UniProtKB/TrEMBL annotation:
Protein's name according to its UniProt entry: Phosphoribosylformylglycinamidine synthase subunit PurQ
Job description of the protein: Part of the phosphoribosylformylglycinamidine synthase complex involved in the purines biosynthetic pathway. Catalyzes the ATP-dependent conversion of formylglycinamide ribonucleotide (FGAR) and glutamine to yield formylglycinamidine ribonucleotide (FGAM) and glutamate. The FGAM synthase complex is composed of three subunits. PurQ produces an ammonia molecule by converting glutamine to glutamate. PurL transfers the ammonia molecule to FGAR to form FGAM in an ATP-dependent manner.
GO molecular function: ATP binding; glutaminase activity; phosphoribosylformylglycinamidine synthase activity
Active site per UniProt: 85 (nucleophile), 194, 196
Subunit structure: Part of the FGAM synthase complex composed of 1 PurL, 1 PurQ and 2 PurS subunits.
Pathway where it operates: Purine metabolism; IMP biosynthesis via de novo pathway; 5-amino-1-(5-phospho-D-ribosyl)imidazole from N(2)-formyl-N(1)-(5-phospho-D-ribosyl)glycinamide: step 1/2
Catalytically driven reaction(s): N(2)-formyl-N(1)-(5-phospho-beta-D-ribosyl)glycinamide + L-glutamine + ATP + H2O = 2-formamido-N(1)-(5-O-phospho-beta-D-ribosyl)acetamidine + L-glutamate + ADP + phosphate + H(+); L-glutamine + H2O = L-glutamate + NH4(+)
Cited HAMAP family: PurQ (MF_00421)
Record key words, sorted: ATP-binding, Cytoplasm, Glutamine amidotransferase, Hydrolase, Ligase, Nucleotide-binding, Purine biosynthesis
Length: 231
């Protein structure tokens, strides 16, 4: 499966996302934000980082990059799209998923290994998990506070669009402890933690078994590949 990873000026984790795709058995395809060519990929990842214009509002300027026209069109046709951290912010700014993001409630950048609960295991990117499963994924953000109006929160909670929820501690003040959401169709998912940093033993979060052995993030990438192969 060919999975495109878009690089924006300021992307930090595009190579990590490409590596995660490769570890999951897919073929990563590097895409550039200034192009209009998705190169025939079957899924798309908007990686984390601090894209140009983030000082105005995180993800706002990048969401108008030329390639985002193609990403929005592909998403609306059912192509799986994953937005990680800054990519999550872009998806929200492009209105592919509900909500928005503001500065962390404590006004500080945070980096930690974060416990999450899987709330929706039916999307293209989460079907390899069990609903209610608890996982650990690295987190690093400054503008990670998920917000929405009361009507939107009620709707996404009621319709199962909350994909992940923070456990033990809410690191950024996100409403309802929301760490990730999906669109109604389930092909677009955004989350604040970084699954690409938990894909290979020796480089992931600590677990009770061993230091740096956590690979919960790999399931995001195997999920989308295995679902595509099953179709």
């Amino acid at each position: 499966m060919r999975v495109g990873v878009v690089t924006f000026p300021g992307s930090l984790d595009d190579r990590d996302a490409q590596r995660a795709v490769r570890l999951a058995g897919g073929e990563p395809v590097a895409l550039w934000h200034g192009d209009h060519d998705l190169q025939g990929v079957e899924a798309i990842i908007l990686p984390g980082g601090f894209s140009y214009g983030d000082y105005l509002r995180a993800g706002a300027i990048a969401s108008f990059s030329p390639i985002m026209t193609e990403v929005v069109d592909a998403a609306n046709k059912g192509v799986p799209v994953l937005g990680i951290c800054n990519g999550f912010q872009m998806l929200a700014e492009a209105r592919l998923i509900p909500g928005a993001h503001t500065r962390n409630a404590h006004q500080q950048f945070i980096r930690r290994d974060q416990r999450l609960r899987v709330e929706n295991a039916r999307t293209d990117w989460t079907n390899g998990f069990d609903e209610g499963q608890e996982i650990t994924i690295p987190l690093k953000n400054a503008d990670g506070r998920f917000i929405a109006d009361a009507e939107t929160i009620k709707r996404i909670e009621g319709e199962g669009q909350v994909a992940f929820r923070y456990l033990e501690v809410n690191p950024n003040g996100s409403m309802d402890d929301i760490a990730g959401v999906s669109n109604a169709r389930g092909n677009v998912v955004g989350l604040m933690p970084h699954p690409e940093h938990a894909t290979e033993p020796g480089f992931g979060p600590d677990t009770p078994d061993a230091m740096s052995s956590g690979i919960d993030g790999l399931t995001f990438f195997t999920s989308v590949i295995e679902r595509a192969l099953a179709r």
